[in-house]
Amino acid sequence: MSEWTFFSNHAHVIFVLAQDPELRLRDVAARVGITERAVQRIVSELSEGGFLSVQRAGRRNRYIIHAEQPLRHPVEADHTLRDLINLLVPPAEGAS
């Protein structure tokens, strides 16, 4: 039986960063199950696509997700990144 998932690694990286925007890329890689280099490439592509930006916070980075961006494929283009995140990422504690 082949091993496949419904979401791409790009989506997995977004889901992980939505849960913890200050996570180190090595930790994102461990959670997603890919290399740190692959996560760096994905973060770069997501940034170039306008889906996230990186803000320096001391010695760490903070990843800001631009959830208002529409999804890229024509099948889901009438939905935003926020719609997708809200389906699978539990709200942060204390969020209203």
Helical proportion? 40-55%
What is the strand arrangement across the widest sheet? 1-2
State the order of secondary-structure elements, H for helix, E for strand. HHHEEH
Query: Uncertain segments of ≥5 residues (pLDDT<50)?
Result: none
So how many helices? 4
According to DSSP, the number of beta strands is: 2
Find the CATH topology. Answer: Arc Repressor Mutant, subunit A
Beta-strand level of the residues, as a percent range? Answer: 5-15%
User: In CATH, what is the homologous superfamily?
Assistant: Winged helix-like DNA-binding domain superfamily/Winged helix DNA-binding domain
Please state the second-level CATH architecture.
Orthogonal Bundle
- Tell me the Rg in angstroms: 14 Å
Biggest β-sheet description: 2 strands, antiparallel
Counted up, domains total 1
Q: State the shape.
A: globular
| Average pLDDT number | 92
Derived structural class:
alpha+beta
**Distance between the amino and carboxyl termini:** 42 Å
- Name of the level-1 CATH class: Mainly Alpha
Structure description:
The protein has one domain: Arc Repressor Mutant, subunit A, CATH 1.10.10.10. It has a two-stranded antiparallel ribbon with strand order 1-2. Strand 1 and strand 2 (60-65) form a beta hairpin. With 96 residues, it is an alpha+beta fold. The mean pLDDT is 92. It is globular. The N and C termini lie far apart (42 Å). It has 4 helices and 2 strands; from the N terminus they run H-H-H-E-E-H. 42% of the residues lie in helices and 12% in strands.
